[in-house]
């Protein structure tokens, strides 16, 4: 199984316990039936996929997470993936519409359905009802799956995520700065984390505290 060389390691912090929102329990409730998760970039799809893998791994299961955005991958990577309890395929947008990839996906879905031993969880940016497939049979199989849409977190959920990030990085976060970021920065939580990471790096480099003037200077508001 040479294709397992392409396995992506799970990030230790991307657990269900750290995932805000109710998609974790909702996803677990449909296991072991195939699940398609969609959401815009930064909506937490990767976190959810890896969190589901962590959960099963902690229970003693075998899991396999694969991000499909690498140019080094070929459709053959989807072969021989039937020995896992959870199989998570991230970034379906990179293969949809490509007939060789869809043929490989079709074979994989059919084999997993016949075996009934592996929970297939997949994610894309495009909503499942709007996904464009090259092969009608693949479209039919996928549209029969459970579908969850990763939406925007509430401001209170975003606040908890950002405060946890600040605490873990020993970054003092005044309430007024946090509110300023929530009001002015991109709304996707992934983008907010990237913004806060940039501010943390600049704060350390300049040896300056986070203030609204400093945030405006760094982010060029």
Summarize the structure.
Helix content is 43%, strand content 11%.
Describe this protein's structure:
This protein has 221 residues and is α/β, with parallel strands linked by helices. The protein folds into 2 domains: 148 residues, P-loop containing nucleotide triphosphate hydrolases (Rossmann fold); 65 residues, Helicase, Ruva Protein, domain 3 (Orthogonal Bundle), CATH 1.10.8. 43% of the residues lie in helices and 11% in strands. The protein contains 8 helices and 5 strands, in the order αβαββαβαβαααα. A 5-stranded parallel β-sheet has the order 2-3-4-1-5. Helix 5 packs parallel to helix 7. It is elongated, with a radius of gyration of 19 Å.
SSE topology:
Layout: H1 23-28, E1 35-38, H2 45-58, E2 63-67, E3 86-90, H3 99-115, E4 119-124, H4 136-143, E5 146-149, H5 155-168, H6 175-184, H7 189-206, H8 212-219
Helix pairs in contact: 5-7
The coarse overall form would be: elongated
Low-confidence stretches: 1-6
Main sheet makeup: 5 strands, parallel
CATH domain topology of the largest domain? Rossmann fold
SSE string, helices as H and strands as E: HEHEEHEHEHHHH
Per CATH, the architecture of the largest domain is: 3-Layer(aba) Sandwich
Instruction: Using the coordinates above, name the CATH class of the largest domain.
Output: Alpha Beta
Order of strands, main sheet, comes to 2-3-4-1-5
**Helix content percent band:** 40-55%
Between the first and last Cα atoms, what is the distance in angstroms? Answer: 50 Å
CATH fourth-tier homologous superfamily of the largest domain? P-loop containing nucleotide triphosphate hydrolases
**Percentage of β-strand residues:** 5-15%
Report the mean per-residue pLDDT as an integer. Answer: 89
What is the CA-atom radius of gyration, in angstroms?
19 Å
Number of domains: 2
Oligomer: single chain
Counted beta strands: 5
Name the structural class: alpha/beta
Count of helical regions: 8
